[in-house]
Every structure is written in C-alpha cells, then in structure tokens.
Amino acid sequence: MTAGLVRHFRMKKTKVEAVRGVDMDIGDGELVALLGPNGAGKSTLFRMLTTLLPPTAGTATVAGCDITRDPDGVRARIGYVGQNHSAGENFRVRDELVTQGRSHGMTRAGAARRADEVLDLLSLTPLANRTPNTLSGGQRRRVDIAMGLVHRPALLFLDEPSTGLDPHSRAEIWDHILRLRRELAMTLVLSTHYLEEADRMAERVVIIDHGRIIADGTADRLRKDLAGDRIVLTLDNRADMARIAEPFDAHGDTVHIRVPDAATALPRHLRALDAAGVKVVAAQALQPTLDDVFLALTGRRIEQEAA
Ligand SMILES: Nc1ncnc2c1ncn2[C@@H]1O[C@H](COP(=O)(O)OP(=O)(O)OP(=O)(O)O)[C@@H](O)[C@H]1O
C-alpha cells in the first residue's frame, strides 16, 4: 500500500522529518491501529494517505488509486475522520449529512435517504435535528464519523477517534467502530495513543516512532516477541535474592524474572523456591503491555510522553 513514504516540513532554517520512509501493506477488511507517542508522525501519514498532504518522496496506493496521480479516485473511495470536527457548528446534523451527500454527487432524495441510514448506523437519529454545538464530545465524534461514511467508503481512516473523550464515550465510539467492521466489513485504519485500546480492539498494531514503523503485528505477537512475560516475586527476606538461579531484575523487595509463559512458570518457580527454603510472600504472573513493548524497542514509555 505504501512504499518509502516520506514527508518533511521546512520551517525557516529547520527541517522536520515527520515521516521518514514508511512501507505498509493493509489488506481488505483489516482493523489496524497505528500507535505512537505525540509527534510520532501518525497524523502526517494519515494526511498523505488521504491526499490532504503531498508526500515529499515515496508512493502509496489507497483503495486501488495512487495518492499523487489519482487523488480524486482515492477521495471517492475512502472516508477520513480527522482530529477536527467536520460538521459546521450551527447547522442541523441531518442537514449537514445531506449537504455532504450532495457534495458527493447524490440526488437530494438519495442524499436524504443516505443521511437517515448513517444517522441510524451511528445511533444519532434522536439527535438529527440538533446542531453540533449542542452535542456532547462523544456525540460530536459520532457525527464526525457519520460525515465520513456518507459516500459509502470501503476504507475509513480515523485519526485519534477517541482522544479527549471520557471513558464512557470512548467505549461507545469503539462499539460503533467495531459495528462498522462487523456489519459493513469495512477496512479501518485508526491512530491512537491509548495503549489499551490498540491492544484490546485492533487485531493488528503498527507502532510508529520518529516517523518510522518500528513494529507491526498482533498485540500478542508483539508482546511475546519483543517484551516477554514476567513473574514478580516478593521475598520475605531480601538476602534470599542471592539464592535465585535465573537472571532477574530487583525492584526494592521484588524480583522480576523474564519467562516465556508466566502462567506456567509461576507455580514451577514457587515450588523450586519452596524446596530451597526461600519464603515468598507475594507472587504475580505478568503479561507485558504494549507500553512494555514500546519500552523494549525505544527505551521510552508512550504513556509518559502522551501525558
Ligand atoms: N504543518 C507542519 N509544519 C511543521 N511541522 C509539522 C507540521 N505538521 C506536523 N509537523 C511536525 O511533524 C511531526 C509529526 O507530527 P504529527 O502530527 O504527524 O504526529 P502525531 O503522531 O500525529 O502526533 P499527535 O499524536 O500529537 O497527533 C511533529 O514533530 C510535528 O511538530
């Protein structure tokens, strides 16, 4: 889908290399989460793939069309939900959707029918005659998604769809995103810096940092390959640490041991330590988070940077 995609910005004397050579292939019907800290280049990549920004170098084919040679073809086939609201403040939601349909060449009756369909799809029918400035953050986000769906795209880009929403609204947005996937078999590419969302919702996670892809796979695969499970033991007597045979990291009173499968390793370790007379007062089997994966790859944590 993309080959060597690059985007630089020039500002006076400095050059910002926002995207530094991205190669990515996304298949039909995939749900892909692009995960990275602030400034990683996610929005710039999206803006190139949705033809809002020309690449400095490289190529990309989106929904079968080249982003540089056939931007109109790309735009006709994709939907894009950016970080800014797409509907005007003071027009009724349904009217905005009809206008959007008309701008895609639909007849008035066709656009009205489609507006009602997308209102229903995003559970917005009761709000159809409200203006966006009277809606909650989560409701407005659903209007943004509805605007991106009017022309029936097969592929939808969502740039941080849940950022800034309270946990309840975030869960609601995700219900709707997953519904699009289930009921319309859409290809969904979204960006997020919420680690647990990428982990739970997407079957493929692409981690991006400083404008480059640094990992790509299922969350489970990334965890296993790049971070590994840990068991965490608290010993009754710190001096007993010297009697642990495996390599470990000590954090205060606790000992962290890297293992391939924490659930099966934990009882084995407890039995061995018991037999050696080492008293363990607490024990935990820990699966790494995607933040641990990011830490293993970069030495930094996404969560700290997002905060
Ligand atoms: N128009 C621009 N002019 C100059 N620099 C820009 C421009 N747009 C983006 N950048 C820079 O490019 C880099 C990547 O920004 P981008 O918005 O793509 O990151 P992001 O991963 O989407 O971050 P966020 O999660 O904060 O939205 C940043 O250093 C940013 O400051």
Automatic annotation (TrEMBL):
Swiss-Prot/TrEMBL GO biological process terms: response to antibiotic
Domain of life: Bacteria
This protein's record includes keyword Nucleotide-binding: yes
GO molecular function: ATP binding; ATP hydrolysis activity
Keywords, ordered alphabetically: Antibiotic resistance, ATP-binding, Nucleotide-binding, Transport
Gene3D superfamilies with a match to the protein in the record: P-loop containing nucleotide triphosphate hydrolases
Subcellular location: Cell membrane
Membrane topology note: Peripheral membrane protein
GO cellular component, one term: plasma membrane
Principal location class: membrane
ABC transporter domain: residues covered: 3-235
InterPro entries: AAA+_ATPase, ABC_transporter-like_ATP-bd, ABC_transporter-like_CS, ABC_transporter_ATP-binding, DrrA1/2-like_C, P-loop_NTPase
Protein's UniProt name: ABC transporter
Source lineage: Bacteria, Bacillati, Actinomycetota, Actinomycetes, Pseudonocardiales
